[in-house]
Design goal:
68% of the residues lie in helices and 7% in strands. The chain has 123 residues and is mainly alpha-helical. Strand 1 and strand 2 form a beta hairpin.
Length: 123
C-alpha cells in the first residue's frame, strides 16, 4: 500500500534504517525585495501571522515582497514629484535657497513615505 506522498509522485531515499522523503523546494523568483519588501515582511510576520504563514508555505511570499517593493518605489517617486510640483519646490528654489529646498524636500519625502506605509505596507 502506497502512502499519499507516493501516490502523488513523491519518492524516498533510504538512509540507514530510515526512509527520508526527497523534498525539493520550488525555485524562488528573481528580484530585489528592497526596504519596502522587508518592511512588508516584518508587518505580515508580526501582525498578519496567518497570511504570512500561508504565503510562506505556498511559495508566494517572495514574489509578493518583490511586487510590494516595486509598487512602493513607484508610488513614492510619483508622490514626491506631485507634492513638490504642488508646493512649488523647483530647481529655481534649489538654486536660490539650497537649505530651504532640502528642508522642504525632506518634509515632502517624509510625508510621501508615510502615505506609502499606510497604503501599501501596513494593510
Amino acid at each position: 500500500m502506497k502512502s499519499y506522498f507516493e501516490e502523488n509522485g513523491g519518492t524516498f531515499t533510504q538512509v540507514g534504517e530510515y526512509l527520508l522523503p526527497n523534498l525539493v523546494m520550488d525555485p524562488q523568483p528573481e528580484g530585489e525585495i528592497g526596504i519596502w519588501g522587508w518592511r512588508r515582511k516584518r508587518y505580515l510576520k508580526e501582525h498578519q501571522k496567518g497570511t504570512y504563514n500561508a504565503m510562506l508555505l505556498n511559495g508566494t511570499l517572495t514574489q509578493h515582497l518583490i511586487d510590494t517593493n516595486a509598487a512602493a518605489m513607484d508610488m513614492l517617486e510619483s508622490l514626491v514629484k506631485q507634492m513638490a510640483k504642488a508646493e512649488g519646490v523647483t530647481e529655481g528654489l534649489k538654486r536660490r535657497d539650497q537649505l530651504g529646498w532640502v528642508r522642504r524636500m525632506n518634509n515632502i519625502r517624509n510625508r510621501a513615505e508615510e502615505i506609502v506605509r499606510n497604503e501599501l505596507i501596513y494593510v
